[in-house]
């Protein structure tokens, strides 16, 4: 299993880093996790061939996680893609995703490759490929928008934290969250790699809570340039056992998790 941090920035655009995105590679399958604004350029910079991506999953529809999708599919088209592309999506987001792509003129009858929507329910075990699966659990990231549903009943407030599993390895990605409780959505699982966003909780509260997470290594992503300094300062005050366990990921960081 390989994990590549394609981007590590928060929703705030950065001159130095791309919005948060991961590429998970297991055996012959490459899964892109989140495809926000600028994802095509982020992949180019990371020397990842667009057409080697077999599937894409987005955690929620905020633009830093989703809005790069049509542009990326256009790149795939221009590179003469023939192989189908899997899009993993919660069932409540499938129609809006499909409609968004069609309205950007990615019309299925016109395409030379198939987009296969693979929808899932909350907490359902989803097989990505042989011996590679995921479970999405709804977190509280979008709960504060509930009050707007009165005027906009069609919006889905589904935002997922994700658990990926291969035969031997377990990876948790919080994606964007809103509460300390969201860090523990998969609390029954001890992961090999725990990847947490670092924007929506106050840095000191986040680091303290991460001290209670059972994982071999913890990586932080989705942080602004301003937060980087502050997080570093907090990490410097920790006992070395904990400090050595929490790593601030950089764009392009690649981890090989050995079986
Ligand atoms: Zn975000």
How do the strands and helices of this protein lay out in sequence?
Elements: E1 2-7, E2 21-26, E3 29-33, H1 39-45, E4 55-57, H2 63-66, H3 69-78, E5 85-90, H4 94-103, E6 115-120, E7 125-129, E8 132-138, E9 160-166, E10 170-173, E11 191-197, H5 203-210, E12 215-221, H6 225-236, H7 240-243, E13 246-248, E14 254-256
Parallel strand pairs: 3-4, 4-5, 5-6, 10-11, 11-12, 12-13
Antiparallel strand pairs: 1-2, 1-14, 2-3, 7-8, 8-9, 9-10
Bound molecules: zinc ion (ZN).
Zinc ion is lined by residues 10-11, 62, 64-65, 176, 222.
Characterise this structure.
By secondary structure, this protein is of the alpha/beta class. 21% of the residues lie in helices and 29% in strands. The protein contains seven helices and 14 strands. It has helices at 39-45, 63-66, 69-78, 94-103, 203-210, 225-236, 240-243, and strands at residues 2-7, 21-26, 29-33, 55-57, 85-90, 115-120, 125-129, 132-138, 160-166, 170-173, 191-197, 215-221, 246-248, 254-256. The strands form two sheets. It has a seven-stranded mixed sheet. A seven-stranded mixed sheet has the order 7-8-9-10-11-12-13, with helices on one face. It is globular, with a radius of gyration of 18 Å. The protein starts with a strand and ends with a strand. The mean pLDDT is 96. Bound molecules: zinc ion (ZN).
